[in-house]
Design brief:
This protein is α/β, with parallel strands linked by helices and about 450 residues long. It has three domains: about 15-45 and about 185-215 and about 375-450, no CATH class; about 55-185, no CATH class; about 220-365, Rossmann fold, CATH 3.40.50.1820. The protein is built from 15 helices and eight strands. The longest helix is centred in the N-terminal third of the chain and has 25 residues, at about 70-95.
């Protein structure tokens, strides 16, 4: 019988109902998985055999050095078993009502263990602390073994962190209290719905699993995204230049040029109504121009960074002057568009071209001395492998760049959606920014290495 909270069944499910749900789940799993193999989608899984960081040889080298460093191995093992014993002792004492301080606690900002059961329930608290202890031991083991080069050591630390993130108890139905509660309350319906979500994602991404981050059916460019009135006033092989209609009687004399990244669509600045920077700027009396980059294919494989500068912002400056009669502009560069704007400003300064009177950079890196974890993918070995992959097509698939940045924040951008979509059986909420983020574009081959 349904209750008043979303129509879920009241009372605990019977063993027969759970067995029935499990049987249906297994049958559906087998049926759909067989269909995927027949249609060749599993064998086409993106990156199934790929090793973008060259970890195979690194793990072998690490294992050799580990067994020749018994001191580090013994130290990590002793620390682990000491604290593991303390966790079990504390769990036993808590079972008799004693108050004890935890041995291991999540790092600040780690939202995986926010459910109250991870602290209040003895079993889940023990599982949580044991996992955190295992995470600490794994990281100490990798970082404690000497003799590895700095770049190789960073790669191993990154790969270890990814594996430990994947092993989090929150990622498994039987060790996630929220999933267990949902399974009992819905009599397993969440697992069936999660399976449907899984195969829906597979059907939308024939080259591999792409976990949905938002409701991809909730948005449509030109309908509820990128709806600020405007028109194309210029175009060439690489871009279209959009001029947006003013909403005020008087507008600023100097136009504003916005340069978005060419690895994403232009409408990051013009999302749904009420969340559009373009609309806000037009309401402030700005004459706004936006570059909309083409999604390049093999026919544009010869285009490099210089082409993007000449046929992008520099061509836009000429077109803006023709459209408005104004020679001077203000400019905004976003992400990769900001890098292009910075380079363009340097090129123009060398030629004493002062048409850009002010420049604003949004989420733009200008100091490349430390690029963070993304540098793990762009060392000499990584670039060589990447160039081999894109040589045949003549461009770098935007999907690969999207996946790389997603892995850099796996807990937030991978595993949280995995839990929500597949274990909890929920549909991702409509989110215009995440829709834009998934709408990636390609990059011509020369632009991948400057």
């Amino acid at each position: 019988m349904a209750n008043d909270r979303g129509g879920k069944a009241s009372g605990p499910p019977s063993a027969f109902s759970l067995m029935d749900t499990a049987g249906k789940l297994a049958q559906e799993n087998f049926r759909r998985a067989t269909g995927q193999v027949v249609h060749g989608k599993v064998n086409g899984h993106r990156g199934l055999m790929a090793d973008p960081l060259g970890l195979g040889n690194l793990w072998i080298e690490f294992s050799k050095r580990l067994w020749t460093d018994p001191v580090t191995l013994a130290r990590v093992q002793m620390d682990f078993w000491r604290d593991f014993s303390s966790i079990w002792q504390n769990t036993f004492r808590r079972s008799f009502g004693a108050e004890v301080d935890p041995v291991m606690t999540p790092e600040p900002g780690d939202r995986r263990f926010s459910d109250d059961a991870w602290d209040e329930n003895l079993v889940f608290d023990c599982i949580k602390q044991t996992y955190l202890l295992l995470t600490r031991a794994g990281r100490e083991l990798v970082s404690g073994v000497g003799g590895m080069g700095e770049q190789d050591a960073r790669k191993l630390e990154f790969a270890t962190a990814q594996m430990l993130n994947a092993l989090s108890p929150t990622n498994f139905a039987v060790t996630n209290p929220a999933v267990l509660r949902e399974t009992v309350e819905s009599r397993g319906k969440n697992l069936v719905d999660g399976l449907n979500n899984l195969f829906a994602d597979l059907s939308r991404s024939p080259d591999g699993l792409n976990i949905s981050m938002t409701d991809m059916e909730a948005f449509e460019v030109g309908k509820n995204l990128a709806v600020t009135p405007g028109k194309v006033v210029y175009q060439n092989e690489l871009m279209q230049l959009i001029q947006y209609a003013p909403t005020t009687e008087e507008v600023a004399r100097r136009p504003l040029l916005i340069i978005p990244p060419w690895m994403n669509k232009f409408y990051v600045m013009d999302l749904r109504p009420g969340n559009s920077m373009i609309q806000w700027l037009a309401d402030q009396g700005q004459t706004v121009f936006m570059i909309s980059w083409v999604n390049p294919g093999a026919e544009l494989a010869h285009k490099d960074f210089e082409h993007y500068m000449l046929e992008g912002p520099l061509a836009a400056l000429d077109a803006i002057e023709k459209a408005t009669g104004e020679r001077e502009v203000n400019a905004v560069g976003y992400c990769l568009g900001g890098i292009l704007l910075s380079a363009t400003l340097a090129w123009m300064a060398a030629r004493k071209d002062a048409r850009i009177k002010s420049a604003t950079l949004l989420t733009t890196m200008v100091d490349f001395s430390d690029t963070g974890e993304v540098s793990l993918f762009i060392d000499d070995e990584g670039i060589e492998k990447l160039e081999k992959q894109i040589k045949e097509k003549g461009y770098l698939e935007g999907r690969k760049v999207f996946d790389t940045f997603r892995v850099l924040r796996a807990n937030d951008l991978v595993w949280s959606f995995y839990i929500n979509n597949y274990l909890m059986g929920k549909s991702p909420a409509p989110f215009d920014l995440l829709y834009w983020n998934a709408d990636s574009t390609n990059m011509p081959q020369p632009c991948t290495h400057g």
